[in-house]
Amino acid sequence: MASDLAAGRKIVDIAVDYGFETHSGFTKAFNRYFGCSPEIYRRHASFDMPKLPILKKTKQYVSGGIVMEPKIVKKPAIRIAGFDIKTRAKDRENNKAIPKFWYDYLNDGRQDKLHKESFLKSNEEYGACFPENPENGEFKYVIGVEVKDGNSIPERYHVCIIPEALYAVFTTPPVNDTDSFDDFSFPNAIQGTWKYIFSEWFPASGYEFAPNAVDFELYDECCKAETNKVMDIYVPVVKKTD
């Protein structure tokens, strides 16, 4: 079921294959088990992500599964400014569009200009996914930095609010720039953590993905280290009610 979603099949077709008469019935059952909607799972748990054993590099595992316990924290609303694109999970479009978006941002001068602006509150960068448009499947992805209160922002930047939420915060397994194995690269550590969150942690956690909330990756000084490079993933959650 989950692999069908990640591979890009239509949700209604998957629902029929698994014996559900309606899309809503399938969605409720999926959310009850996986802790998120089929659309959110497909957005983050890509079919071609690394296998879960990548996370064993943390040396925190027990018989039968990997253990990666998040911190549960409440964060106030965050105002960020930067750049945005719209993309979709259908046909894994987002898996190509978002890496290209980052590559262009890092190499075309936009990052340098943004970080020289006087309105920056911090140099930490956010990679934020906003809720999907149910009519066309598009969602907005933003690369940005937190801004100071009361500062006006030039129109060339996209300004948005990450709303207040309760988050499960996952730190990726540490990697080194000198690691020679592809499975231990920084991008794969990030992707492997996302897959763990949705395939392993949510089903057993007692939490579910908070509706209409924003998830994000936070890139700070820990991402720039040559050794033990890590970053944090913020997943908005609420306690399951059933």
If you had to describe this structure to a student in words, what would you say it looks like?
- The chain is built from 7 helices and 11 strands.
- With 242 residues, it is α+β, with helices and mostly antiparallel strands.
- It has 2 domains: 147 residues, no CATH class; 85 residues, Regulatory factor, effector binding domain (Multidrug-efflux Transporter 1 Regulator Bmrr, Chain A, Alpha-Beta Barrel), CATH 3.20.80.
- Strands 3, 4, 5, 6, 7, 8, 9, 10 and 11 form a 9-stranded antiparallel sheet that branches. A two-stranded antiparallel sheet has the order 1-2.
- It is globular and about 55 Å long.
Question: Could you give the topology of this structure?
Answer:
Elements (H helix, E strand, L loop, with lengths): L1 H5 L4 H7 L5 H12 L3 H7 L16 E2 L2 E2 L4 E5 L2 E11 L4 H15 L2 H5 L5 E10 L8 E10 L10 E5 L2 E7 L14 H20 L1 E3 L5 E5 L12 E8 L3
Antiparallel strand pairs: 1-2, 3-8, 4-6, 4-7, 5-6, 5-10, 8-11, 9-11, 10-11
By helix and strand content, what is the structural category?
alpha+beta
Which percent range describes the beta-strand content? Answer: 25-35%
Largest sheet: 9 strands, antiparallel
User: Unreliable segments (pLDDT under 50, ≥5 consecutive)?
Assistant: 47-66
Overall tally of domains: 2
The radius of gyration computed from the alpha-carbon positions, rounded to a whole number of angstroms, is 18 Å
Instruction: Tell me which oligomeric state these chains represent.
Output: single chain
According to DSSP, the number of beta strands is 11
What gap, in angstroms, lies between the N and C termini?
22 Å
Order of helices and strands: HHHHEEEEHHEEEEHEEE
Helix content: 25-40%
Query: How large is the count of helical segments?
Result: 7
Task: Compute the average pLDDT.
Answer: 82
- Principal-axis shape equals globular
